[in-house]
């Protein structure tokens, strides 16, 4: 049922890189498309929040209002009450990677509040949470969109949904789903030239800001496993969790428990020979090694880890920190539908969030 | 304003390859998602139509009902009257490539009837028709979607819209937009090996059903020019028509006016040396020749024709009859957002139509 007013209230949790980019896109959107009227009614970081009884925060001035606010963030149930009491429909934009916020999506959705987010946690956690989220949305008629949870702004989730919703049969999904892993392997084992030493490439990637503060959070493969979990579920495999299928970690056993990312980087050169052997083995076959995820719908298997590719394969030819995702389906036959481009970064991640918001607005306003 | 009932009436014009694939996808969709209730109320070919005062045609039996019908198609104004009088909202699905039907979109849209189509004619004809269509939709609140007008089911138009709507700045769009041209050049000038003779490849493509009945309708470049016109307009360039920018035709001047496609194919070998020279010139630079379209937003220029690419370029590495479309934008930087895959065929074209219909349903029902 459409709301009688032509206004929508937006609450934003998270004011980091993605949150800031999103606010700037939201300001431009509100200026360019005055209908429906977009009213920012809540903004919070982990420590503070800005909101008021008029449900009105300036979009352009939100970050200043947040910085100068003396209010603590509302608890999630309080925020749900606040939004449910808004004078028109409300959308929660979760720009965090918080499990707590993710766990509260069923609450928001069941109260008619739509959710838009790049947060992977809700869709790659327990299968029960996944079911609770979509059941709550279906029951209450609220919407939930999460394009940026895989491949940032690349149209990965919308394309998979379109394939499934129009009755195509997905047989396999394969790709490079991590900008960090893409950068590391494109530098370590390039198609042309010999590439660098593994530990040196990891160090460089960290210095360039391409890794998490502790690079082990990328190298353990869990980020890729989370994305595969989301895609597998959308394709129809009820994957229980991101640890319920084989995930290859690139952290040497001996370094799993060292106390810090710095100590890890210091000791990593001692293990370069392992990665060097993998690279040589591939080279001997005229191939290169890449860190990929794949979902085989026929055998119902999901896996994440190192694989070898011909140098002419699109996965081998990837550049920089780009992602690539190939959808093999019955309709598309032997040549897959391929989507490629930057899969990380504040602006492109926020783009996925903003385009999701536009889709929600077209349905609720 | 949402319709009070939870039913939507669908009228389908066109029962060729795309039309048949669409009906089969529509039947599966109606069975899988019973809400809103999808009622097929009209189906027509160029000669016949099936419809009744109950607004009810069996989706599964539509083609038989059409074959055994003795009714002539309604005129387009009559069809608009018929749909406007339906007991709930209606969607017109135009699975033809007819200019007449395209010219009537403003009429349907202005009467609240949404339009979904793979027909390029409406969006690549005169700029006035383009404006009339979107003005009528905006005024009446009806929807118009045409994903399959470029790249069939590939998410080309939705991605470009998302980029523009979220405020990214498109700087360049480049790609191979014709399955026929893709097949011809991937065979004529492959990355590995020497390829075939030009006229022999054209003949083969025709025999395999990859060309129009008269291959000149592909070789004149107009199909690609129409697609470029659509993308340029969506990106913000008010291109007047598909003949208002440079389009290179691959039809030798001397063969433009021969009377039939067969005569053209018979005489084409006499002109093979021209294409052979182009291929050799590229080879001397270690490149291959491809038939591409490009839109440069900075210089506001659109062009269609032959260009040379390094053998490692994604456009050179294309396979079979795949399309590839690269979006260069401010946010995506030097590595474009790339979409690749089959850009022609009944099933994938119908997929774009069906997914558009799903988007329209989510907004009007």
From TrEMBL, chains A, B:
It is an enzyme of class 1 (oxidoreductase). Keywords: Amino-acid biosynthesis, Methionine biosynthesis, NADP, Oxidoreductase, Threonine biosynthesis. Its cofactor is a metal cation. PROSITE patterns: HOMOSER_DHGENASE. The keyword Lyase does not apply. L-homoserine binds at residue 212. The active site is at residue 227. InterPro entries: Asp/hSer_DH_NAD-bd (IPR005106), Bifunc_Aspkin/hSer_DH (IPR011147), HDH_cat (IPR001342), HDH_CS (IPR019811), HDH_short (IPR022697), NAD(P)-bd_dom_sf (IPR036291). NADPH binds at residues 96, 120. Pfam families: Homoserine_dh, NAD_binding_3. Gene3D superfamilies: Dihydrodipicolinate Reductase, domain 2, NAD(P)-binding Rossmann-like Domain. NADP(+) binds at residues 14-19. Pathway: Amino-acid biosynthesis; L-threonine biosynthesis; L-threonine from L-aspartate: step 3/5; Amino-acid biosynthesis; L-methionine biosynthesis via de novo pathway; L-homoserine from L-aspartate: step 3/3. Signal peptide: none annotated. It catalyses: L-homoserine + NADP(+) = L-aspartate 4-semialdehyde + NADPH + H(+). Residues 155-358 form the Homoserine dehydrogenase catalytic domain. GO terms for molecular function: homoserine dehydrogenase activity; NADP binding. Residues 14-147 form the Aspartate/homoserine dehydrogenase NAD-binding domain. Belongs to the homoserine dehydrogenase family. Catalyzes the conversion of L-aspartate-beta-semialdehyde (L-Asa) to L-homoserine (L-Hse), the third step in the biosynthesis of amino acids that derive from aspartate (the aspartate family of amino acids), including methioinine and threonine, the latter of which is a precursor to isoleucine; production of homoserine leads to a branch-point in the pathway as it can either be O-phosphorylated for processing to threonine, or O-acylated for processing to methionine. This is Homoserine dehydrogenase. It comes from Xylaria hypoxylon.
């Amino acid at each position: 049922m459409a709301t009688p007013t032509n206004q929508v209230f937006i609450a934003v949790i998270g004011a980091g890189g993605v949150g800031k980019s999103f606010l700037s896109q939201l300001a431009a959107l509100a200026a360019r498309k005055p209908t429906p009227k977009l009213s920012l009614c809540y903004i919070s970081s982990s420590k503070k929040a800005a909101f008021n009884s008029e449900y009105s925060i300036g979009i352009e001035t939100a970050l200043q209002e947040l910085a100068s606010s003396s209010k603590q963030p509302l608890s999630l149930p309080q925020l749900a009450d606040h939004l449910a009491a808004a004078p028109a429909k409300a959308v929660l934009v979760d720009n965090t990677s918080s499990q707590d916020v993710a766990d509260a999506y069923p609450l928001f959705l069941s109260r008619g509040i739509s959710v838009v987010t790049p947060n992977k946690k809700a869709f790659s956690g327990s299968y029960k949470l996944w079911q609770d989220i979509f059941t709550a949305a279906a029951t209450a008629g609220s919407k939930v969109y999460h394009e940026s949870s895989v491949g940032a702004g690349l149209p990965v989730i919308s394309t998979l949904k379109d394939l499934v919703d129009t009755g195509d049969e997905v047989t396999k999904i394969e790709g490079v789903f991590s900008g960090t892993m893409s950068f590391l392997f494109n530098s370590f084992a390039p198609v042309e030239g010999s590439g660098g030493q593994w530990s040196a490439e990891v160090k460089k990637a960290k210095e360039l800001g391409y890794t998490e503060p502790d690079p082990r959070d990328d190298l353990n493969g869990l980020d890729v496993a989370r994305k595969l979990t989301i895609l597998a579920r959308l394709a129809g495999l009820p994957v229980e969790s991101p640890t319920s299928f084989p995930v290859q970690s690139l952290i040497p056993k001996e370094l799993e428990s060292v106390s810090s990312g710095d100590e890890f980087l210091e000791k990593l050169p001692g293990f370069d020979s392992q990665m060097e052997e993998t690279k040589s083995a591939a080279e001997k076959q005229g191939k290169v090694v890449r860190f990929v995820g794949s979902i085989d719908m026929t055998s119902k298997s999901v896996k994440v880890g190192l694989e070898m590719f011909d140098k002419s394969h699109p996965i081998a030819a990837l550049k920089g920190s780009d992602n690539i995702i190939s959808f093999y389906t019955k309709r598309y036959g032997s040549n897959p539908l391929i989507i490629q481009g930057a899969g990380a970064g504040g602006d492109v991640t926020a783009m996925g969030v903003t385009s999701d918001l536009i889709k929600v607005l077209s349905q609720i306003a």
